[in-house]
Write the structure tokens for this entry.
Amino acid sequence: MKKKGHWWRWWAALFGREAEAPEDEAGHRARIAELEMDLRERDDRITAMQAEYAQLEISKGKAKETAGQNELEGLFKRLAGPLSNLATLVELARKGQTAEAADFVQLFDTLERELARKGLERVGATGDAADFDIALHQRMSGSTVRTGTPVVVQMPGYRMGAKVLLKAMVTTADSAATAKEEIVNGESGR
């Protein structure tokens, strides 16, 4: 009988089996070869799936970019007409010709309405009273203002959803009243 090697004894101890005849060694080698082939096939499938996932990510990025580009193009197309009219009015005014203020107001309203359809929202309007909110307002000058302090909007801001793009410029209600009083009494600029 052939002497059994270290691995053979280990295998027998691990699985609690009697040491098999040396003829069965060929069967074990065949099973090991089969398992190695299964592992290679699994590794090939994993590699193929990873490549497919990477390709899907690239396609997703391109689709997102294209969708964003199409969205911007659509918005710019809607804004092109009013901007063209506005450019014409600006050129007339630069040449000293009459440009009606009502035309500017109408064009501005058209532009703002188109932008609002895409989610751009105005924060306040000039002269509006509001309670100070640090997320929406910025004081024009002076000391700090506490949240909830009455303020007057001097220049509107804009936000898109929850994201504030430009804070509304405000003054405190008492400083706005003082400035109006100075203008009315002719004290401005002194």
Q: What stands out?
A: The beta strands are 120-123, 129-131, 137-139, 150-155, 157-160, 163-166, 168-172. The radius of gyration is 38 Å.
